[in-house]
Write a structure and sequence with these properties.
The protein is elongated and about 80 Å long. It has a 9-stranded antiparallel sheet, covered by helices on one side. The model has no long low-confidence stretch (mean pLDDT about 90). Helices cover about 20% and strands about 40% of the residues. Strand 8 and strand 9 form a beta hairpin.
């Protein structure tokens, strides 16, 4: 099965791989959002023609039904194909509108690919405009309350261990001399960086390339899952490497299986994150380094 998507930014293909996972051809077969394709196909199937509209070509732009590939076009072409390339459905989607009938209250202007006849159809289709927004960008999602300890290691090897005894407790910095209560804003910034972490771009893993290590972050959770995150910098681009494992004491079949599943994904791709996401890791490290100099 395959979906072809065309808009003013280009033509893009998404297909189902041998594991029945929908992937993006443009992004080296990286998986798309799990429920996105199902939602799009359902919304398309539920659409019903309600009323004929214009068939005058010059008026199509007013309702968003110009050529989808034209610069600045608001239209989008969606084509569903079978595994052997047979076209199952094909439509150009234009502007969405509101109306009142017994069928629905929201509709979309549509037309056929080789047909200037416009129609008002019931329902809408939620299509991400940019093909990168079709991707499943989720990496890790660690609830702040589940974190037991963190180890921040700077590029110069300087290390800071931050820990607490149980969920909900305040974090402390462990030093040879004493325990130091961590600033609440600093704690929030650091743990927020691990909550719902997403990437901004992705490409197949490359071992080469000029990049410098910015920091290493080792995270241990109360359920035994451990995450090793390395932040790299290449010019103005920030990349992260991820690895997970489960301690022998806490290892269970479920936890071990989850760790292996995550590593299968992490060890195949290079992930790019935006500067503001990188700052969620770098700012706490710099604050700890500055505080260390004052002790």
């Amino acid at each position: 099965s395959r979906i072809i998507f065309v808009n003013s930014s280009g033509k893009f293909a998404f297909h189902r791989n041998s594991d029945s996972i929908w992937v993006s051809a443009k992004k080296d077969d990286y998986p798309v959002l799990p429920k996105l394709i199902g939602r799009i196909t359902t919304q398309l199937a539920d659409m019903k023609r309600i009323e004929k509209k214009t068939r005058i070509k010059e008026r199509l732009k007013k309702i968003g039904l110009e050529n989808p590939s034209d610069p600045g076009s608001n239209a989008a072409l969606v084509r569903l194909e079978s595994s052997n390339g047979k076209v199952l459905a094909e439509v150009i989607l234009g502007a969405q509108t509101s109306y009142k009938t017994t069928l629905a209250s929201k509709g979309t202007f549509i037309r056929g690919v080789d047909d200037d006849q416009a129609w008002l159809a019931s329902g809408t289709v939620d299509l991400p405009y940019h093909p990168d927004d079709w991707l499943d960008k989720r990496l890790i999602d660690i609830e702040p309350n589940s974190i037991q300890n963190l180890q921040l290691i700077g590029s110069n090897g300087e290390t800071f261990l931050i820990a607490r005894q149980k969920p909900g407790d305040q974090f402390f910095i462990l030093t040879p001399a004493r325990l130091i209560k961590i600033d609440s804003d600093l704690q929030k910034t650091l743990t927020a960086g691990l909550s719902k972490l997403t990437f901004d771009d992705v490409f197949r893993l490359k071992k080469d390339g000029q990049k410098t290590k910015e920091l290493n972050l080792l995270v241990s959770t109360f359920n035994g899952l451990k995450i090793d995150l390395t932040l790299w910098r290449n010019g103005e681009t920030f990349l992260i490497d991820l690895n997970t494992y489960v301690s022998l004491i806490d290892k269970t079949l479920v936890a071990d299986s989850k760790s292996k599943e995550l590593n299968k994904q992490f060890h195949t791709w290079n992930y790019v994150i935006s500067k503001w996401k990188a700052k969620r890791f770098l700012d706490p490290l710099r604050a700890l380094q500055a505080s260390s100099k004052k002790m």
